[in-house]
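Example record

The entry below shows one chain as it appears in the dataset: sequence first, then structure tokens.
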Amino acid sequence: MANGWNVFQARGLRIVAASLVLAAFGAGDAPAQQPSTSVLAKIKKDGVLKVCYGQLSPESYKDPKTGEWVGVQVDLVQMLADWMKIKVEKVEVTWDVAVVALARGDCDLMSALIYNAPRAMQVNYIRSFWSKPIDALIPKANPKGFKQSSDLNDPGVKLAVVLGTREHETVQRLFPKATILAQRVQSEAQVIDTVKRGDADAAVLPVITIKWWLDIPENAAFGKAAFPDAPFGKAPFGWAIRYGDPDWKDFLDAWSIYVTENDISKKLYDDYLSRTNPFAK
């Protein structure tokens, strides 16, 4: 967390930061007013921000040694909460029920939710922090002879994905002819076991996840990225909230602008990628 704060404090406050604070807490003796139904008003009253997290590296995942949530998006949420002087209540969800959990009020925002149109019909995305491409992890010998991503769109190909993730939605959309093995797992890399057992031909995962997994020598001896020079399915992601709360949306959009303008997200990603690997023992 200290590294995140160093990034956060590295550059001077900008106009958007002042707007962010003023929008949340007002100025001087004239406090800003939000509708009583706004999440922003509730947070100001209760001092607690409820955040839904799903396992996704390096955005939000549980440290195997401590069991605590860590990651780029976890740091960004904590930075905002510290600035607002409120507490964060973490709510763990699986990706197949993330949208449902947000809709029924289990949390005030969903962290690290990658954009796709069906989801955007149900939840309101704030301005994106980042974007991530995806790739396929295959056996090193490439027994299926994959040369380009379109080769995955074949009735004879079995693709393993984490149930409810953007990879799940992407393979359904881009490779409708393939057999899709969608699994509910605790770690996104667990779908690779399906490939190792021979039950699937490829595991479709974020490029970052594949890189981390292959950084472990014993894993690199087994597999490789299928299309390292041409990953596919790049999509923006950030946070999502329920529709119908423009004050909360404006507040979070201003925060996203501040993060982007100060390169905080990029620096956090660079930091996590350089010093951590959730698959290292």
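Notes for this example: The CA atoms of residues 50 and 107 lie 5 Å apart. The domain at 133-234 is CATH 3.40.190.10 (D-Maltodextrin-Binding Protein; domain 2).
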